[in-house]
Amino acid sequence: MTSANCHDLIDSLTKAKTVEDIHTVCSHFCDQYGFDRFLYGARLPTSFVKPYLISISGYPSEWRTHYTEEGYIAIDPTILHCATQLTPLTWDKIGIKEKENKLVHRFMNEARDFNLNSGVSFPVHSPQGESAMLSLSSSKSHLQARPRILEVMPHAHLFAAYLHENVRRIFEQQVLPLKRAQLTDRERECLLWAAEGKTAWETAKILGIAERTVIFHLQNAGNKLNVVNRQHAVARAVSLGLITPQPV
User: What is the distance, to the nearest Å, from the Cα of residue 168 to the centroid of all Cα atoms in its chain?
Assistant: First the structure.
């Protein structure tokens, strides 16, 4: 197991053209690095209420069906961790939550029934506001798997970042209308001041342009973002990472 293996797998990711290609590369990663299963999941902010969810899974199909039927996405500690943290989660650390929460305890016990006994989950957060994760699992106990997990973590963390970038590339091209709206600098400025609660008149005074010009730019931005009003435009621009807090 060397960094050369990881770079070869990353190169395969960059050449992948389909979800099936991605699945194959992830399976090869598991084979080369001593894991039994993988799961990649992502939340793409096409909507605040109904984001687009992506799942590429090497987990047992019976477990995935049971997971969905039980609504475990709401309590899955790996998802909760990866949605809010930047550092990897080794599953032995979930033991504390198991003691505190009966639902988490049941969830982990049932996962172990499917030989998802130990593993590690890697969060990925993109500038576009996306949240993703890669989980690698083993049928071995935490004690048996921990040395390998710690050894693999630097390679797997890098692999997870490239995995997300290339999944996003494939879904942009084939499935989702995620081509980022090409806002002009002025449109972005007007949206930023709208996000601060400024009216078109106030924004015009700040930028030194006519009020009708501000309205024009906001309307153009709204058309590009396919929204129904100014508030919707601000929300979508934020969710897509098109406007962000400005550096001092």
Answer: 10
